[in-house]
Amino acid sequence: MITKQKGTYDIFGEEAKKRAYVDEILSTLCAKYNYGYIETPVFEASELFHRGVGEATDMVQKETYDFKDRGDRNLTLRPEGTASVVRWFLENKFYGNLTDPIKVFYNMKMYRYERPQSGRNREFTQWGFECFGCDDARSDAEVISLAYNAYRLLGLDDITIKINSLGDKESRENYRNALVDYLKPHISELCEDCQERFQKNPLRILDCKVDSESDIIKNAPKTLDFLNEESKERFDHLCELLDLMEINYEVDCKIVRGLDYYNHMVFEVVLDDSYALGGGGRYNGLVETLGGPSTPAVGFAMGYDRTLLAMQEKNVRIPIDDSIDLYLLSVSDTEKDTAAYLAQELRLNGFVVETDLLNRSLKSQFKSVDRYKAKFLIVLNDDDLAKNEVVLKDNKTKEEERIKMNDLVDYLDMHL
RNA sequence: GCGGAAUUGGUGAAGUGGUUAACACGCUGGAUUGUGGCUCCAGUAUGCGUGGGUUCGAUCCCCACAUUUCGCCCCA
To answer: Which nucleotides of B are covered by protein (CB under 7 A)?
Structure first.
């Protein structure tokens, strides 16, 4: 048997309906913020992600799906959305006439070669959005507000927004150096993983789970102390705005984010104080890194599958109507033919109709009626049909009504 | 890349080194000559993840691999 690939999954049935519900909420919300929908290709030139995300990151070094196509091109399945959207932005030269900000949202499958576990797969979905052209604390606040409201509307009220600022390039650089200097004498006291992080990405030592309680980490220099005046003012303004907007946030200096392109404001959405459901921030340097003019940008991505899991854990009720309007039962050939055209007629009039396609016994068809949770049923009967009549039964009250076939649509319209 | 747990039918599962692999749900048919959901009866795994090995014999023991699942790393 050929089975699905490790870390992939089929979406169908209940799950598909849940996702349709979530998608609807998210895209409606995006429309309110005037974000337009964008879909980018599943694969791009490898270089886009390698340069965009950061050559040194784990994501690029060991998690991308890289391959060569038949034309010997180096391609990569997108592991995240931002780089692709930036490519789109550049390719269309939107930077040339930025009279208004460019705001887009996406809901796309992403691919990373990882070891699957709870809320993590090789093929997964991210809902996210990006905004180009504004470089103001107010645009940061709008982005956080959109992310925040998305979770709230999905019924996840226990979320916290953790924010931090890495400052501009200079501040970030200064901080990194200070941190490295601070940690150097203590490095042997940290866990094995941290010793490796010290070489590769020292900022990440801050959110190590093992060493989080140690004094070394607690007394480490804080990003916010290294912000220059401009960066600091901007961050303070952002906090004021979030207060004003009544967004539940907390400043957390340990939020540094793993990807190279962030600067200034970074934030994560966490559930129950620890589980990350999404993250984002400002990336003013990325457009330039990818070959465009310096352009401010800010964005966010939600771990869609994780969020769905969280909704399940929090027992968020998702309204799913899986009942049908009418089941047509039939036995004889003429009854079955009648069922076929009657169903056609009713479906065109907007009703959800099912018939027996398996030539099963009447008893079996009745069982289907219940399985499908049909609101009404009709046992087609040749004698009735000769008089152009049907007996419509309300499956809840069990009441039967003899009506003319021509009146069926009107009757159902009134009773559904 | 590292570690733990698991893998029996459509589903939930019991089970034993040796004839026909429990039980339950579900499904199909019948009792009820065309009005069900209750009840009763019958049917429903050339088969115990895959490949090797031990054995007279393995679903049950051993090894490898795969997949699932939960962690680590990393990330959302």
So the answer is: 1-3, 27-30, 34-37, 66-76
